[in-house]
Amino acid sequence: MMRIAVKLLIACALVVYPIAIYFADDWFTPSQFIAGLLLLLAIRLVVITWIKPEHLMRNLALTALFLIAAVAVILWLPGIALDWLRLYPTLFNLVAFLAFFISLFSGMPLAERMARLVHPDLPSQAVAYTRRVTQVWCAVLLSNTFATLYTALATSFETWTLYNGVITYLLFGAVFVGEFLVRTHLKRKWAAT
Fold this sequence. Notes:
83% of the residues lie in helices and 0% in strands. The chain is an all-alpha fold. α2 runs antiparallel to α8, α5 runs antiparallel to α7 and α7 packs antiparallel against α8. 21% of the residues are buried.
């Protein structure tokens, strides 16, 4: 149960990241904010190690590294610009795009791997459909990578926060709902044939 709570807390932290940066601007310097994020990562590793101690030495070493990095940021990067923190959504979208895109050239696209977790025996129509879903997510993530980069480099802090803290989630939610509706329709169609 504690493991699920930690995962939910981390997911929530990632979701509210743009809004947290917006409000942190009045209270913390960017270097303090980065140090705080590194400290949260260290705490996360300690909790994970407490719950699941299989990789004790690795996790303790990473925890020490995060703590050292937090101190280093405070001591040696006191004047870091907040603009760099605005690039996190861009990097996240780029990494997600690359994961989906690279999977298209493997034996099993990412959407198919996820589908097989629930339905190990996918019919051939579903396999073709999951490839198309992976391609759609590639397009969405690449477009969002450019949009988040634009908001980080060329718009106000308020616009960046609105796009990355609200609009992106609405966009992803719309894609999820749209894909679910299409999948439901296709399942009925495949069952009828």
